[in-house]
Specification:
The protein has helices spanning 11-17, 87-95, 175-179, and strands at residues 5-7, 21-22, 31-34, 39-46, 51-59, 77-79, 97-102, 104-110, 116-123, 129-138, 145-154, 165-167, 198-202. The protein is globular, with a radius of gyration of 19 Å. The strands form two sheets. Strands 3-1-8-9-13 form a five-stranded antiparallel β-sheet, with no helix packed on it. A five-stranded mixed barrel has the order 4-5-11-10-7. It is built from three helices and 13 strands; from the N terminus they run E-H-E-E-E-E-E-H-E-E-E-E-E-E-H-E. The protein has a single domain (5-105, 128-196), classed as Alpha-Beta Complex (hypothetical protein yedk fold), CATH 3.90.1680. It is mainly β.
């Protein structure tokens, strides 16, 4: 799953990277602790602009037919295995797909009965990740609201050490296909080679509070290696 992530690049940087028109209107801000219903950047095809556009959407997809916004926090993730047939996502998958730029995402792992250790999955070279996403426009509250969801898939390789699910990370060669006519072919878990360079970085507990923000949240902390066996208790010597 993906329930918390970081996206800190500027609109100038993202619009250049994705060759998209900047339609954010100055509303995009860095966020090291994105939580459900927060505003986030997405890249989508805009009929109004005649091409790719960088927009700001609220994380938590609301289908156009939703009666109210209360279900948005439950619609942050769409499973790749069922996204084409689930009522809340099928229409967006068919016609309104997007890329969700991110620095990385967080997961929590409980180890040896101790407190959960948060990890930040990010590119070691500092590059941008692109999650497969969906978007929709909801007008139930009067003014139209652009909303989005992240598509998730089965975790691959070492990423399965932190969770059995992960965002569907798309390499650059698949960006145009996801926004175009090849999306159905891209729903399989990523090839391990496409995830080379993603590190599992242990970070501090402050990220667990959505009120916290800032680059300190993604700083590496000391932690036992994932997959390491628990430490054996010291042998008691009797004199």
């Amino acid at each position: 799953m993906c329930g918390r992530y970081a996206t800190t690049r500027s609109a100038v940087d993202l619009s250049a990277l994705f060759e998209a028109y900047d339609d954010t209107g100055g509303r995009l801000t860095a966020d090291y602790n994105v939580a459900p219903t927060d505003p986030v950047p997405i890249v989508r095809v805009s009929a109004r602009l005649g091409g790719s556009a960088l927009s700001v959407a609220r994380w938590g997809l609301l289908p156009s037919w939703a009666r109210d916004a209360r279900g948005a926090a439950r619609m942050i993730n769409a499973r790749a295995e069922t996204v084409a047939t689930t009522a809340g996502y099928a229409r967006s998958f068919a016609r309104r797909r997007c890329l969700v730029p991110a620095d990385g995402w967080y997961e929590w792992v409980r180890r040896d009965g101790a407190a959960k250790q948060p990890y930040f999955m990010t590119r070691a070279d500092g590059g941008v990740l692109a999650f497969a996403g969906l978007w929709s426009v909801w007008s139930g509250a009067g003014e139209p609201v652009l909303t989005c969801s992240v598509v998730t898939t089965e975790a691959v390789g070492d990423l399965a050490l932190v969770h059995d699910r992960m965002p569907l990370v798309l390499p650059p060669r698949h960006w145009a296909g996801w926004l175009g006519d090849s999306a159905a072919e891209l729903l399989a878990p990523p090839e391990p080679a496409d995830l080379t360079g993603i590190e599992l970085r242990p970070v501090g507990p402050a990220v667990g509070d959505v009120r916290n923000d800032g680059p300190g949240l993604v700083a590496r902390v000391a932690a036992a290696p994932l997959g390491a066996p628990p430490e054996e208790p010291a042998e008691l010597t009797l004199f």
